[in-house]
Write a structure and sequence with these properties.
Elements lengths: L1 E4 L14 H9 L3 E4 L11 H6 L3 E2 L9 E6 L3 H5 L6 E5 L6 H9 L3 E4 L14 H20 L7 E3 L2 E3 L3 E5 L3 H12 L3 E5 L4 H8 L3 E2 L5 H4 L13 H15 L4 E4 L14 H6 L5 E4 L16 E4 L2 E4 L9 H19 E2 L4 E2 L6 H6 E4 L2 E2 L11
Parallel strand pairs: 1-2, 1-4, 2-3, 4-5, 5-6, 9-10, 9-12, 10-11, 12-13, 13-15
Antiparallel strand pairs: 6-18, 7-8, 14-15, 16-17, 18-19
Helix pairs in contact: 5-6, 5-11
The structure holds nicotinamide-adenine-dinucleotide.
Nicotinamide-adenine-dinucleotide binds next to helix 5, helix 6 and helix 7.
Length: 377
Amino acid sequence: MKIAIPGEVAADEPRVAATPDTVKKMVGLGAEVALEPGAGVKSGVLDTDYQAAGATVAKNAVEQADVVLKVRRPTEVEVGTYKKGALVVAIMDPYGNDAALTAMAQAGVTAFAMELLPRITRAQVMDVLSSQANLAGYRAVIDAAAEFGRALPMMMTAAGTVPATKVFIMGAGVAGLQAIATARRLGAIVTATDVRPAAKEQVESLGAKFIAVEDEEFKQAETAGGYAKEMSKEYQAKQADLVAEHIKKQDIVITTALIPGRPAPRLISADMVKSMRPGSVIVDLAVERGGNVELVKPGGVAEVNGVKIIGHLNVPGRLAATASSLYAKNLYAFVEILVDKKAKTLAVNWTDEIIKATVLTRDGAVVHPNFKPKSAA
Ligand code: NAD
């Protein structure tokens, strides 16, 4: 059983899919582990660290691999260098990327999308969305604090009292809850909103105030999978009125709202941005999915009437070492279920609910029901 970890080809991707710790564990499962030279360097892991953990380092690491572990979906060129039948595990970003999924199918690899894991107890240890979103929520507060020209906590000094900063978190899922906790630790006064009723208690348990349009639609807004639904036009209008009033008085706003498989909901209009005081800061963590904020500049910081809108891409990558260590642990837990530990060989159970939910391509075809080409569906 050969497992390979290539370096990420995207210039803006500093994360890596294995750490010395997970290499050691994979060797313990009976695998031969090979990495491409420099694969971990942007996450602070040297080739020698991997070698000390039992891996080999070679340019052609992927060619003979039975399993390839990646952060991002491999490009057509990359996948062309993999063995037919190889299992490829990554964050595949499958929505709206049909051509790329077809390319993986045609290359003959079996691709698993980690973001499609079912949110069941057994899969929590593999949950890459949670591990990465948690770090993004933390980093969003740090980025906002760095751009904000004021201190966050209340300070009573001989020269006078500095008031505490007001932070508003929109979307209280994994990223939002961590943003609330981080902003509270820094001494801010925190409010938060969401469309799922379950979020209310979680927000309040972190010491923040919950603000939302709590009508009949709100009571039904959570899907069986625990995610938000797309809200009606009427709800969106009521929500916009509430947000418009609240946002004027805020110093920092962090938006994290997502709906699986849909564009991110637009929560902050240009007028709302302009209603904020100069010097205020907005962080849009949904920027890669279209953004929650009008006027956000993907990959940069926009300034409108003195209000900064931060639109960094790949926010977990801004904490590459921590993000890689958690991501690698998630992948190791997934690899464990692909293996027969006694025989020390690959033994994929295609009827396992985790496997069924994540497998995108197999035997030359896109097989996932949500992504099968229409004619084959
Ligand atoms: P997500 O990333 O899909 O969305 C982020 C947040 O945005 C969610 O809380 C969502 O309700 C909110 N949102 C969507 N539309 C909105 C709108 N119009 N206005 C305001 N907010 C809006 O969500 P997530 O972080 O993945 O978390 C979703 C839920 O799943 C949470 O309750 C979380 O605790 C739960 N969860 C469960 C597991 C598990 O059981 N293994 C793992 C992770 C998360």
